[in-house]
Design a protein that fits this description.
Blueprint: H1 2-17, E1 22-29, H2 39-54, E2 68-80, E3 83-95, E4 102-116, H3 133-153, H4 159-172, H5 189-197, H6 203-215, H7 223-235, H8 238-243, H9 248-264, H10 274-283, H11 288-291
Length: 296
């Protein structure tokens, strides 16, 4: 019996050590189609959930508690035979050290999302071929989630995963689906990935690291020191905004962070916020309602 229990313990340990990277909740909303109760939508949600959470996306070993919390909300506006027109909202977060708080990292509303899907078709990802726009879009965002998460723990830790996302962009650009080419507008998957890999936005990766590791992760032990580090990291984004005002990269950053920034600087120990508020209003003027609530 003791040998059996020991073997079972090692089995569970091996399973936990091989946990996949994401803990992702996926919803499919088909109300706009007028046929929200069709089985195909429930099957799509189930298959995507299994695909994202059960695929091994990297060669890294993740423990169960290290899996990245994220969600994908797919809203289908049109459905005809096997062609779907939709949008997908992707959000991810990472835990703050010594806290129950989760800090938002990624908040992207992808409006260039149409795909072919036949119920129960196998969902498989191949980095070297474009087989499905559904799979390519999901995989692109998965690697972006993993890359941004890695950036918050290690300086430039996400570069490898942004590079894989770039491979997906290059492969998918041969298709007729939108979002993969430089000509597909200023708020496309191509543009976002290009910014993540461009030297024009090089400070962004250090900001992600400093904001989270020196700022958010210090909040529990030294709130004032953590707030000062967050403020400095945000102020360091000013150089990017001076070169590329109203950039898609910074807009996406503040879409994820505006409520958190407001909360951090609306209470607790006082820190110098004059420069911070001025920079926030310059870099993210559409979030002025958030910045006006900063009181300290």
């Amino acid at each position: 019996m003791r040998r059996f229990l020991t073997t079972l313990t090692f089995l569970f340990l091996a399973i936990s050590l091989q946990a996949q990277e994401l803990n992702c909740s996926i919803t499919v909303d088909a109300e706009q189609t007028g046929q929200p109760n069709l089985q195909v939508f429930r099957t799509l949600q189930q298959q995507l959930t299994e695909f994202v959470n059960n695929t091994k996306w990297t060669n890294k070993v993740y423990k169960n508690q290290e899996r990245i919390d994220c969600n994908m909300s797919i809203v289908i506006s049109e459905y005809s035979s096997d062609l779907f027109t939709a949008t997908i909202q992707i959000q991810s977060s990472r835990p703050a050290f010594d806290s129950t708080y989760d800090s938002p990292v990624y908040n992207y509303n992808d409006r260039q999302f149409s795909f072919d899907y036949i119920e129960f078709q196998p969902l498989n990802f191949n980095i070297n071929s474009f087989d499905s726009n559904l799979i390519s879009v999901i995989a692109y965002h998965v690697y972006t989630i993993i890359g941004l998460d890695a950036d918050t723990y290690e300086l430039n830790g996400g570069a490898e995963y942004f590079g894989i996302a770039k491979q997906i962009v290059n492969t998918a650009s041969s298709s007729n689906f939108a979002g993969w080419k430089a000509t597909d507008g200023t708020q496309s998957r191509y543009q976002y990935n290009d910014a993540l890999l461009s030297s024009v936005y090089r400070e962004f990766h250090k900001v992600l690291y400093d904001y989270h590791r020196k700022g958010i992760d210090n909040m529990a032990d030294d709130t004032k020191k953590g707030k000062e580090a967050v403020a400095k990291a945000i102020n360091d984004l000013r150089s990017i905004n001076d070169r590329r005002p109203n950039s898609f990269l910074l807009r996406t950053f503040f879409d994820a962070k505006s409520d958190e920034i407001q909360a951090i600087f609306s209470g607790g120990p006082n820190v110098d916020i004059a420069t911070l508020v001025d920079n926030l209003n310059r870099m993210a003027p559409t979030k002025r309602s958030n910045w006006s609530e900063i009181k300290f």
